[in-house]
Amino acid sequence: MHQSPAPWPQQQPPGLPSLKGVIFASVLGSVLVLAAAVLFALLPGALSEAADFRAARPCSEVSAPESGDCLSEWPATVVSTGTGRSNKAVTHWVTVDLSPEEPSFRIRMRGDGPVWRELAPGDRVTVFAWRDLVWQLGSGELRQDTTRTPDREPAVRLAVGLTLLVVGAVFLRGAGWLHRRRATRATDTPTAQVVVVMAATLVAAAGAATAATVTDTVWLALLLAAAGCTAVGTATVLLLRGLARRRTA
């Protein structure tokens, strides 16, 4: 009995998007969008804490400073200053003593501001605290914020969340685009098209992050970010259409 030869495995045409690429874009986009959703879920708590901090009064003006919701000031002595690295960024630290009976503790400053640059071991400083957060350090008339300042936390979370959301949405959109190209066996992917999409993503993400830092109002930040993303998306579509017409002309 004659047997027909086994069919050759179908080879993927050169330039056709791979299934691994589609899966990678889908998974990465989903992870980024999920991370953004987590940050947005934590945002109300950060906003509430920031509002409490802005409304807090100095402990000398309240009748029950032991509640911890007032702004306290503590004299301290500088033990040492130093720099380090965290996520490839330079960090600036000050180690202080509040009293001989209490252990020394480190304060991470926001940049190398005027206070950090002038400090030396033995200097007297003022530690500004709210609840369990040291939010500012003072030396004479100079003041410098720490990285624990509560009223900056919502802006940071919103900026990071919007950036992750924009980039994640682009990856998910790209996964759908790659899947359609696989389904239609399309192999012509102009380099200019990829470059335009990448540049548009960077611009949209930067615009969304900037919107979160220029205003303390969440709905306004979201509105500005949405308007910026819409403008960038519209410009990208028009530019890609122009490139497609030029390529087929």
Describe this structure in words.
With 249 residues, this protein is of the alpha+beta class. The protein has 5 helices and 6 strands. The chain has a 6-stranded antiparallel beta sheet. Strand 5 (133-139) and strand 6 form a beta hairpin. Helix 1 runs antiparallel to helix 3 and helix 4 runs antiparallel to helix 5. The chain is elongated, with a radius of gyration of 27 Å. It starts with 18 loop residues before the first helix and ends with a helix. 22% of the residues are buried.
- Based on CA atoms alone, the radius of gyration comes out at 27 Å
Order of helices and strands: HEEEHEEEHHH
Q: What is the helix fraction of residues, given as a range?
A: 40-55%
Tell the overall outline: elongated
Major sheet strand order: 3-2-1-4-5-6
Number of helices: 5
Low-pLDDT windows of residues: none
How many runs of DSSP E, i.e. beta strands?
6
**End-to-end distance, in Å?**
56 Å
Strand fraction: 15-25%
Biggest β-sheet description: 6 strands, antiparallel
* Helix/sheet category: alpha+beta
Report the mean per-residue pLDDT as an integer.
81
